[in-house]
Specification:
Blueprint (H helix, E strand, L loop, with lengths): L2 H24 L7 H14 L10 H24 L14 H13 L6 H15 L2 H10 L4 H28 L4 H23 L12
Helix pairs in contact: 1-3, 1-7, 2-3, 2-5, 4-5, 5-8, 7-8
């Protein structure tokens, strides 16, 4: 544990809270990609299967429960409670083009060929691209609400901070994980264009627009 990982985790939790509050207060999931939320739910389910078999710390267990509960609640709100407000037409990204390559890559490149390790690796690869349907949706609709932009910024900040965490751990502990680092770099690159637009547009009170 270090300050970069801790702040990254807080940013991640903050992103989930922003999203849930946005959906609940507006009674609508307009502008949110249900497909991205399904991918994130798959990420947490495959990564945290060890919740009841491996105890690391209270902090670790609480975070796992928060991410599982948060993603489950989001999927429920989008596909059950506020289903009528979900934009199926614009949320048209083919997620099988992300799931299949990530599954194959996790079978080929992993630390150990065991069920739990392959599933963990799959979750790392999938998380790096899970935001693509959301970015695709924003691109198709032409703009994003401010609250949605704040959610995306918090989510992107979490991953960027985790990259700093890996640099710190390498310098201080001589520890590194190439799979996590590679996936983190890919995920951060996907957010770069959004980060620029967020800083130059949203923070100045303008609507965020991604190029189509």
């Amino acid at each position: 544990m270090n300050i970069f990982r801790f702040v990254g985790d807080l940013s991640h939790v903050f992103a989930i809270i922003i999203l849930l509050l946005k959906i609940w207060k507006t009674r609508s999931c307009a502008g949110i990609s249900g497909k991205s939320q399904i991918l994130f739910a798959i990420v947490y389910l495959t990564r945290y299967l060890d919740l009841f078999t491996t105890y690391v710390s209270l902090y670790n267990s609480v975070m796992k429960v928060l991410f599982l509960a948060g993603s489950g609640a989001t999927v429920y709100l989008m596909y059950v409670k506020f289903k009528a407000t979900y934009d199926h037409n614009h949320d048209s990204f083919r997620i099988e083009f992300l799931l299949v390559p990530c599954a194959l890559l996790s079978l080929l490149i992993n630390h150990e060929f065991t069920v739990m390790e392959v599933l963990w690796t799959f979750s790392i690869y999938l998380e790096s691209v899970a935001i693509l349907p959301q970015l695709f949706l924003v691109s198709k609709t032409g703009e994003a609400e401010s609250i949605t932009s704040h959610y995306l910024f918090a989510l992107g900040s979490y991953r960027a901070l985790y990259l700093v965490n890996w640099v710190y751990r390498y310098m201080v502990e001589s520890h590194y994980d190439l799979i996590a680092i590679f996936a983190g770099i890919v995920q951060t690159i996907l957010y770069c264009d959004f980060f620029y637009l967020y800083i130059t547009k949203v923070l100045k009170g303008k609507k965020l627009q991604l190029p189509a």
